[in-house]
Design goal:
The protein is of the alpha/beta class and 462 residues long. The chain is built from 13 helices and 23 strands. It folds into 3 domains: 214 residues, FAD/NAD(P)-binding domain, CATH 3.50.50.60; 107 residues, FAD/NAD(P)-binding domain, CATH 3.50.50.60; 101 residues, FAD/NAD-linked reductase, C-terminal dimerisation domain (Enolase-like, domain 1, 2-Layer Sandwich).
Length: 462
């Protein structure tokens, strides 16, 4: 008899959450993870360390340029990069230990090593020392996540030319950092090193930054980032990037080569579905490397499910967690539903950018008649008191039914404000519903209320 009812391959946000939910539902579960720390890319070299550095670098910038406006006298402010990096590492370690304790609490077995499918109901695990073991379970969840994409011509050496993993751990501030890619990873890490003193050049192939974000919001972000000192170039095709001596050379089509100290390739991610034994159970992937699943997260192979970044949908940690819970529920015969149209997205720059639902471009493209309400943070009392008045809230509602179709925010605490928007939209709220909710004063969420009121042209402070 198998030792486990369920084996999860991958201990990231989707994998460990799926195992915990399965244990709550009475299953004996195991998680296979090759890295010493659980939590996946998000915790180890993604969401958490980047946000730790964003917060630390923002505090440095506040101390250098803004505290004086509050009557706080600061002298001799400087950077201790080693301490900043240690704090980041400590935050990661604390959270990773927390996940370990959750597995213990839920009686989930952790199997250390690289897991791959080895036929129906079997998972082969290769430990760090090269030894292998095979584990049987009638149910297997594939939660292997994703990996950074390095485009042809970019010679990543892990030192001078690298991905976000390396950019999270520079041991000194580069004099000049070139970021290839104007998405959220490139802009977040570019912001970190710009605040710490680097010259940062961002090269984006598209004619805009943050593709997928509402174009109006992205355009405002572009202007603000340029004002902050990010040197952003659009419509640039990078043909090569390589280390030369103790620096780098980046070559672009129709432009002079750029010489710099470091290069960050932030050109997207793809599912990490190579060499995980999919062929042993007859599973194939699409052209993007994604495993196709049904609405219960079942793959084409009996007894195998897949979740998170390795299946279609937004490559976001919170989406993977939702997948994990829903998948385990489905395995246990419970109701399953994850609405990928209502997965919030956040860019943790300053100001923050957050969005949920459809953009204006998508509504226009679909021929959907809509109404728009916009409220600027400069009209919000709380934003004034914290001296953070850039940006706005935009609410898009169906012209006929008033049902909210999208909410887009650029401004202070946008990542927190989007939570109310997500709750409202998941319950099918209209703009009138949000407008009728009494919001505490003075708070930033009042800007969302005012934007909802502005849908019908009745914002009070606009």
């Amino acid at each position: 008899m198998p030792a486990h009812d369920l084996i999860v391959i991958g201990g990231g946000p989707g994998g460990y959450v799926a195992a915990i939910r399965a244990a709550q539902l009475g299953m004996t579960a195991a998680v296979v993870e090759r890295e010493p720390q659980l939590g996946g890319t998000c915790l180890r070299v993604g969401c958490i360390p980047s946000k730790a550095l964003l917060e630390s670098s923002h505090k440095l910038e506040l101390a250098q340029h803004e505290l004086g406006l509050h009557g706080v006298k600061v002298a001799g402010v400087g950077l201790d990069l080693a301490t900043m990096m240690k704090r980041k590492t400590d935050v990661v370690a604390t959270l990773a230990k927390g996940i370990e304790s959750l597995l213990v609490k839920n009686k989930i077995n952790r199997i250390a090593g690289t897991g791959r499918l080895a036929g129906p109901g079997r998972v082969a695990v290769t430990a760090a020392d090269g030894t292998t073991s095979t584990h049987d379970a009638p149910k297997v969840i594939v939660a292997v996540g994703s990996k950074a994409v390095v485009l042809p011509g970019i010679e990543a050496d892990g030192t001078f030319v690298g991905t976000s993993t390396e950019a999270l751990a520079f041991d000194s501030v580069p004099a000049h950092l070139v970021v290839i890619g104007g998405g959220y990873i490139g802009l977040e890490l570019g912001s970190v090193w710009r605040r710490l003193g680097a010259k940062v050049t961002v090269l984006e192939y598209a004619d805009r930054i943050l593709t997928g974000i509402d174009a109006d919001i992205a355009a405002e972000a572009l202007a603000l980032f340029k004002k902050q000192g990010l040197d952003i170039h659009l419509g640039v095709k990078v043909t090569s990037a390589r280390a030369v001596g103790v620096g780098c050379v980046v070559e672009c089509e129709g432009r002079e080569p750029i010489r710099c100290d470091r290069v960050l390739a932030a050109t997207g991610r793809r599912p990490a579905t190579d060499d995980i034994g999919l062929e042993t159970v007859g599973i194939t992937t699409d052209r993007g490397g994604r495993i196709l699943v049904d609405d219960q997260f079942r793959t084409s192979a009996a007894g195998v499910w897949a979740i998170g970044d390795c299946i279609p949908g937004p490559m976001l940690a919170h989406k993977a967690e939702e997948d994990g819970v829903a998948c385990a529920d489905g395995i246990a015969g419970k109701w399953v539903h994850v609405d990928y149209d209502l997965v919030p997205a956040v860019v943790f720059t300053h100001p923050e950018i957050a969005a949920i639902g459809r953009t204006e471009e998508q509504l226009k493209g679909a021929g959907i008649a809509y109404k728009k309400g916009v409220f600027p943070f400069r009209g919000n009392g709380r934003a004034r008191t914290i001296n953070d008045t850039t940006g706005k809230v935009k609410v898009l509602a169906d012209a006929a039914t008033d049902r909210v179709l999208g909410i887009h925010i650029i401004g202070p605490a946008a990542g927190d404000l989007i939570g109310e928007a997500a709750a409202a939209m998941n319950f099918g709220a209209t703009a009138e519903d949000i407008a009728r909710v009494c919001h505490a004063h003075p708070t930033l969420p009042e800007a969302l209320k005012e934007a909802a009121m502005a849908v019908d042209g009745r914002a009070i402070h606009g």
